[in-house]
Amino acid sequence: MAFEKLLARRPDNIKQKLGPKSKVCLLNSHDIFKNIRNDNFLIMACNTRIKHVIPGIMKAAMETDSIVAFELAKSESDFKGGYTGMSPKDYWEIVVAYAEETGFDRPFFIHADHMTVKSNKEEEIKDTEALIANQLNVGYTSFALDASFNPEEDNIKITARMARPIVERGLGLETEVGEIKSVGQTGEITTVEEARTFIEGLKQYGFTPDLLGINNGSKHGNYLEGEEISIDLERTGQCYEAVKNYGVNIAQHGITGTPLHLVGRFADYGIRKGNVGTEWQNIAHRHVPPDLLDQMKTWAKSSNKDIKFTTKQFLKEINSIPEGFKKSMVEESRKTATEFFKAFRSVGSASLVARKLAG
Predict the structure, then answer these.
(1) CB–CB of 55/101 below 8 Å?
(2) Tens digit of pLDDT for each residue in 262-285?
(3) DSSP letters spanning 91-158
(4) H or E element in which residue 332 lies
(5) N or C: lower Cβ tally within 10 Å for the chain?
(6) What is the pTM of this model?
(7) How far apart, in whole angstroms, are the C-alpha atoms of residue 236 and residue 42?
(8) How far apart are the first and last CA of the chain?
(9) Is 69 in contact with 46 (CB distance < 8 Å)?
């Protein structure tokens, strides 16, 4: 079978960590993206802050023959567990355990999302470098470096510095220019010149990324009531045209809440990876016991914090919900993931990648 052959393409450290009998097809995202540059589909990357949704997504990926990624951002998962309560090691082991348990045999990668550096202070840069080193050791196979909060010249320098160990290992790399805002915030759309200058700047350091995340009007999180969804696909396409000759495609952030008919057009504008995060949290919250959800809402309100921060606060309770609630969570995750895979045009993409990589 094609997927059996694909196992040989797993990075050596991954094969060693998984063991000789494992059929888990955890790949290097660089190998994937360089082979789908001109294929008109997106890979869905899932920020799964609550673990119970993961097997549902895996089932949908198998049923639709879709490649998929699992990811958490620095804010969601760090040495102290971020706001999910999961360290990088915890998350890697959870994803792999579900893959083994469900017999998940399709290719996927584990991605470090938004490795942020919000200033040029040495301490902050070193802290993020330490986290990246840990993720490399744990077995992450793809990284997104985000110094977009800084002026572009600093963004280039910081990104180039943090990218060294990733580039040396030949792993997948996503970078960002133009800070992507959260719901309720406004920001400037990335210009074509900013995208071109950024990639050319990284080229001066001897590498270019697989993906470039830009601010094209999308937002992180659930859109506020009455807030307009505005994603500038024309500008996205223009940015792609400016960087595609460097072997770079576009990564789309903040897809939760975006109509699927619009999502279906993303691939036509050079977008090859789409992040879906808050959607899985919303599903999880619909399927935790009502009394637990009430406690979570009460804590969030009294703490004046977004409900996402309850994930760590109530981690023990969430992880130990009764099986019936877990099953319903898995089923809705499966159905929703199936809709996204279809909208992303990724049905059949797992076999496509297998043919390209393994023949």
Answers:
(1) yes
(2) 888 999 999 999 999 999 999 999
(3) HHHHHHHHHHHHT--S-EEEEEEEEE--S--HHHHHHHHHHHHHHHHHT--EEEEE-TTS-HHHHHHH
(4) helix 323-343
(5) C
(6) 0.94
(7) 14
(8) 10
(9) yes
**Could you tell me where the DSSP H helices lie in 47-104?**
54-64, 88-102
Residues 160-172: tens digit of each pLDDT: 999 999 999 999 9
Alpha-carbon gap, residue 70 to 276, rounded angstroms: 10
CATH of domain 2-358: 3.20.20.70
Token pair in block for residue 163? 């990218």
Burial environment of residue 46 by CB neighbours within 10 A (0 to 12, 13 to 18, 19 or more): buried
Enumerate helices (H) and strands (E) in the chain, giving the number of each. Answer: 16, 8
What pLDDT, in 10s, does the model give residues 109-133?
Answer: 999 999 999 999 999 999 999 999 9
Locate the DSSP E strands across 168-321.
Answer: 172-177, 211-214, 249-252, 271-276
63: its two tokens: 């049923």
Domain boundaries, the chain: 2-358
The one-letter amino acid at 260: L
Distance, in Å, from the CA atom of 183 to the CA atom of 276, rounded to the nearest integer, reads: 14
Q: Which residues contact 123 (CB under 8 A, 6 or more apart)?
A: none
